[in-house]
Amino acid sequence: MRQLNPTVKFSVILLVGLIVSFQNNLRLNLILVILFATITAVYLPILKWLRLWLWLSLAAIGVFFSGYFFLQEKTVGGQWYGWHLSGQTRYGLQLATRIYSFGFLGASFAATTTLPALIESLQQQLHLPPQFAYGIMAAFHVAPLIPPVYRQTQLSLWSRGLSAPWLSARLMTPLLVKSVRWSEILATAMISRGFTAEAPRTHFKKYQIQWFDWLFAVSLIGLTVGVTFWKSF
Amino acid sequence: MTKKLAKWSLKDVIMVGITALVFGVIYLGAVHVGVYLGVLLTPVGLAVLANEFIFGVWFMAAAFAGYVIQRPGAALITEMIAALLEVFMGNFYGPIVFVSGFVQGIGTEAGFMSNGYHRAGWPQLIIGAIAATVTSFIWGIVRASFSGLQWQLLAAIFVIRLLSALLFSAVIVKVVCDRLAKMGVLSNYPSGATQR
Amino acid sequence: MSLQAKLTFAVEQRLVTVDLQLDPGEARGLYGPSGIGKSTLLGLLAGQSTAGIKQGQVLYEGQPIAALTANQRVARVSLMFQNPDLQFCTATPRTELYFCLENQAIPPAEMAAKVSWALAFCGIAQLADQPLVTLSGGEKQLVALACCVVLESRYLLLDEPFANLDQQTSQQLVVKLQQLQQERHLGVLLIDHRLANTSNWIDQWYMFTDQQVALTTRQHLTQQAELLQQTLPAVTKKSEAAISSVLTMSQFSLPVGQRAIVFPDVALAAGQMIGITGRSGIGKSTFLKSLMGLGPHQGQLLLNGRRVKKCRRRLFRELSWVMQNPQDQFIAVTVAQELGSGSLNKQGVAKTLHQLGLSDKADVSPFLLSQGQQRRLAVASFLARPLALLLVDEPTYGQDQANAWQLMTMSRHKANQQTLVLVVSHDQCLLHQFCDDVWDLNQYAEVTNAAIKSDR
Q1: Which of A43, A185, C289, C338 could share a disulfide with A111, CB 3.0–4.6 Å?
Q2: Which runs of consecutive H residues, i.e. helices, occur in C133-217?
Q3: Cβ separation of B185 and C367 shorter than 8 Å?
Q4: Other CB atoms closer than 10 Å to residue C103's CB: what's the count?
Q5: What letter does residue A72 receive in the DSSP assignment?
Q6: Within a 10 A sphere around the Cβ of C299, how many other Cβ atoms?
Q7: Judgement on whether residues C68 and C131 belong to the same structural domain of the protein
Q8: How many CB atoms lie within 10 A of CB C451?
């Protein structure tokens, strides 16, 4: 997965996600979960992988019960690989497995791709304009400064004897002031290093679409479409 | 499309990017609450409601950018940048979030489009909040396959999300932006210029 | 063949006439009070904008810089900024240098060698692939310097490059800059408030006054500073013996990296002002933060008789924290509201505005004030509330002498009103003049964590 072209990987996983979205296919969901949970296990440390299961399960169990209790028409159930499932259970499972399949599809992407790699590849494959490419990258790299500033703002309000309720305009204003200031400072710094959106630029790292990218795209989309049209019960 | 994108300056892109992250951090503050609430609501099957109360925070970056930058595409592009950043900030749903970003962005954008991007004010933010609720609701039904749910539950989701959107992406965004403009922080942007 | 600037430009309704020249291989400084427009001038010299220029232009080797695009300008001039956190857009020093070269459309095959050379020149080859967020302020400044080196600019303009660095790191940077000046024949122009940083290097200084920028010598500036010192108002230290202690520390120590700072047992009373100094990274800010319950400490820490454990709002009923950068703390739309958002009433606000010399700025946004005014406003907005403990972090950072003096006077005044004031600063001289006691954290028993453990 790491060797794949980031743009291809992103697009294919996005497309598979869309195909999953537009149908209620328990079999497809389960196949994708098994496949991508396995792939994710290769790339994620075991503890992170288990934590992913935990988070997804919390969400999945939640929607399972929503589906179970609030199904529109209580349809009759049926046999599924020798299991007897009531209509409610089946609907609940469809919802829950969908959460897992989205989760593992997404995690397999995030675990094997970095933002700079995707941005570089989007520039080279899809001609993303450079100010977007490097602007997004710059914003991403100041992200670690944001939580401390959030805290700082809170303490600053407390220091004046004011409260700082979460999501209040009072707390948010100083944070957004900083977004604007930081963007000015960063842009100035980048421009002073010779950045301009108009001039041609070279790329140290080349991203190309190779045979294994095509293989990945064709086989995964083929699998998804194939299972979609496989006679479901 | 490329012509429209070319109008964006580096500073604008960084600004909306950082803004999106700031709202993301604020949102994260609530995610824990959302999870606990969700667990509490699970036995009665209402866990899907837990996140709806803060759903409006998702539209804030787009509404903020649209209101401040006042240019066609500002809200939409911002929401997509926000989604892209989010994928790498630990949202494990991955690339599919990008679709959500697109759908929500289109909704917010509709508000600013409603008067041809001339001047943004309350009506534009409110229309944007409503439109974003509608588009995200439709996409939510598709993505999570909620079409099979009883209409009462769907209505509850819709109403809560709408209220949340109005509060966060219209009221709070407007109040905060007007303050920033008065502080002189936005003097380089259209919304700051109209204030003076 | 040089950088020449003959121009008139506008800063806050003032017109400033500049006559400046810098030759390759020459190093000069730019000196002047806070908020006078030094950074604006540097931006103009680098050709980043022409906004505010009323007359004249900036020429590099006879060519106007403003006519060039950003990627053409860097061949002539590079800028370095004072905030080390906000100047990079990629993940590591190496990728940042690639970014610089890509901007110049350098063929990829030549990049690796250039980058390795620039990193080695700046002495940061070992940091090449470390995430930038994990580097210290000084290391980041060296990376910024490496960017200028890799771009091979002929001139280097620096905006307070030492502002966030301690003396030792500053000297390292000075050595590198000297090397660039002498070996690579670069023209260097830097803004600094403290002549001491470059005392054995730069002799020629441009003095920035209200109306003009003109050449003078370091000697002359030093003399002027001494003269100004004599005109400053005297310090009044009113030390009354307070009854109860505000802050009590016993067996108090702080982990900082691999070390620990061990503090003596003390009980500090209201009405005292204590200065805290020491080199960067020694743990001055860590110490202030520990007093607010941010970060761990060992031993006992009592504020008004109560243990400080976690950072909670309750704690801030008795203490306030004045941060380094005033812009980090503004919360209101106007200057008057900024002062009124605490516990001051209308008359109080008017009186304070008068004291700060800001009466005519009451309805102006705090962000539109000059740097010195911002700092005074920020400190003043924390003084109205009755407090047991006031923590002030680097109040004089980036300030000229007169401003620094006024800020310290304000803090001292608060101490005289029965508050315990702790001030962190690099400026030991100033601390000794205003404080009852100065703690040099360098002097405090500094042992490794391992040693502490084996002690017990």
Answers
A1: A43
A2: 137-151, 167-183
A3: yes
A4: 23
A5: S
A6: 13
A7: yes
A8: 12
On the question of pLDDT at B123 being above 50, the answer is yes
The last residue of one of the domains, among C231, C262, C289, is: C231
Handedness of CA B89, B91, B97, B103 (dihedral sign): negative
Size of interface A-C (CB pairs under 8 A): 145
Contacts of A65 (CB under 8 A, 6+ apart): A92, B42, B43, B44, B45, B47
DSSP annotation of C158: E
Number of H helices, E strands in chain B: 9, 0
C102 vs A: CB within 8 A: yes
CA distance B167 to B160: 11
Number of domains in chain C: 2
Task: Report the length, in residues, of chain A.
Answer: 233
More confident residue, C139 or A73: C139
Name the residue among A66, A127, A167 with its Cβ closest to that of B26: A167
Q: What is the pLDDT of residue C235?
A: 79
Which of C34, C20, C373 minimizes the C-alpha distance to C193?
C34
Distance CA A227, CA A68 (A): 25
Confirm whether C456 is domain-assigned. Answer: no
**Phi, psi of A203, rounded to the nearest 5 degrees:** -130, 120
Give the number of C-alpha atoms closer than 13 A to the C-alpha of residue C317, restricted to the C-beta side: 6
Q: Which amino acid is at C326?
A: P
Residue C411 to residues C231, C404, C424: CA-CA distances in angstroms? Answer: 20, 11, 12
* Per-residue burial over B107-121, b = 16 or more CB atoms within 10 Å of its CB, e = otherwise: bbbbbbbbeebeebe
Residue type, C152: E
C242 pLDDT more than 70: no
Q: Given a cut of 70, is residue C386 above it in pLDDT? A: yes
Closest C-alpha among C292, C326, C327, C332 to residue C396: C326
**Which pLDDT score, from 0 to 100, does residue C452 have?**
45
The CA distance from B13 to B151, in Å, is: 40
CATH number at residue C171: 3.40.50.300
Residue A194 in contact with residue C103, Cβ under 8 Å?
yes
Please report the domains of chain B, with CATH numbers, ordered by start residue: 9-187 (1.10.1760)
Cβ–Cβ under 8 Å, residues A40 and A101: no
Q: Which pair of tokens denotes residue C67?
A: 């006519």
Q: How confident is the model at residue C446 (pLDDT cuts 50, 70, 90)?
A: low
Considering only the C-alpha atoms of chain A, give the largest distance between any 2 of them, rounded to a whole number of Å. 68
DSSP state of C361: G
C105 inside 8 A of chain A by CB: yes
What are the structure tokens assigned to C214, written together? 């003109």
Residue C239 lies in a domain: no
Identity of the residue in C105, C292, C342 whose CB atom sits nearest the CB atom of A201: C105
Q: Is A189 on the interface with C (CB under 8 A)?
A: yes
Take residue A209 and report the two structure tokens written for it.
Answer: 């679409």
Nearest CA to C289 out of C424, C91, C128, C140 is that of: C424
Test C381 with A204 for CB contact under 8 angstroms: no
> Which residues neighbour A129 within 8 Å (Cβ) at sequence distance 6 or greater?
A197, B2, B5, B6, B8
Rounded to whole angstroms, the Cα distance separating C102 from C156 reads: 20
The answer to whether residues C315 and C293 touch, using CB atoms and an 8 Å cutoff, is yes
Q: Residue A233 has what pLDDT?
A: 43
SS3 call for A42: helix
- Site of tokens 């967020």: C133
In this structure, what token pair is assigned to residue C301? Answer: 């820490």
Domain containing C198 equals: 3-231
One domain, residues C323 and C411: yes
* Residue B1 banded pLDDT, cuts 50, 70, 90: low
pTM for the whole structure: 0.87
Residues 321-350 of C with CB under 8 A from B: 330, 333-334
- For C143, residues 6+ apart whose C-beta sits below 8 A from its C-beta are C88, C93, C96, C122, C124, C127, C132, C135
